[in-house]
Design brief:
alpha+beta; four-stranded mixed β-sheet; 6 strands
Length: 177
Amino acid sequence: MALVMDALDAYAALVAKVDAFFGAAARRGADLACGAGCSACCRVELSVSPVEAALVERAVRTRGPWEPAAEGCAMLDAEGRCAVYDARPLVCRSQGLPLAYPEGTVTPGAIRGHAGSAELSWCPLNFRRRPPVSADVFDARRADEALALVNRAFCAERGRDPLERIPLRTLAARGAD
């Protein structure tokens, strides 16, 4: 009898892999400005897939209301910290280090380097003293593909549209209900 992983378990496994990669990158120490209280990459309005939204919404409801930051992501509290840090989506988990994307998919102003045919983008606050090395590069394309597959399974299990995007602002508002 084969074991079949449900979509939420598959998402948790994907999150664990992403977190392990980024945890290993901590070896760069002073080359990374990322850390508690840094919200430089959180100054955007994001939307997430249904599988990610399910976990973010659960975290929002568990935490309850918070005083939101004046600007940026709806999940930032007034101190600039993520109110749902443990449930943050993959896009948030993968910021800071060099992200490799297929050529032609990164906004030209955000390209900071190349690795073969991939374009690299990373936080401009990082790698100011020493450039990143290949071990620092995260294959964002593969992570996006894995997330799409997990999301498709999640949506199939629940009769949802896998192309749906849920704004984080909408999820934050549900916590205030």
